[in-house]
Amino acid sequence: MKFQSIKSWLNEQKESKEAEPVYGCVMLEPKKIEGWEENHLDGIDEEDIFIKPNDDSYGLEEQPHITIVYGIHEDITDPKDIVRKMEKVLKPIEVEISEIDIFEGDEYDVVKYNVPVSKTLEKYRNIFLDSYENTQKFPKYNPHMTIAYVKPGTGKKYKKKLDEPFNVVFNRAVYSYHKDGDEDHLIRKPVNLEKDD
What we know:
Blueprint: H1 6-19, E1 23-29, H2 36-40, E2 66-73, H3 79-89, E3 93-103, E4 109-114, H4 119-131, E5 144-150, E6 160-170, E7 172-178, E8 186-192
Antiparallel strand pairs: 1-2, 1-7, 3-4, 3-6, 4-5, 7-8
């Protein structure tokens, strides 16, 4: 067995990490959902919450949103161009939320509100898919608003139809991408979609 120095091993780890692409994401956010913490997040049992050390992208969702497109190739896309496109083509949309559902996984389950696929959402998605190089791993578009990441197998107890559906107005667009491809340095470029007349 050949001895490998720590420095050599660290360089290999860095190179393999650099080989993994990082992608940009266009999403819609509400400026605020009244009572998000007390009426939505507080329903998740603290013992169920999935936490990953040194990664705050899991746990409870602090900024609810709908993803329009994830997978934009950051290395060949100018963020300013995405922001201009968001300003030009996106308008506020209102959706009715009536169901809590889950994505099940080996590492964690995602507890989420289902968002109905509308012609407007599909149109917005297609505009960005057609305009920018991207990689899509899931062929079917499933718009949703994440509530929490929970331990695997615990998500199913949260699935239900809501007794009282509620409406959400998504009036802000955000392009989220990584500074110089560094997956630990996320940049968010927000655009207010409510134009002053």
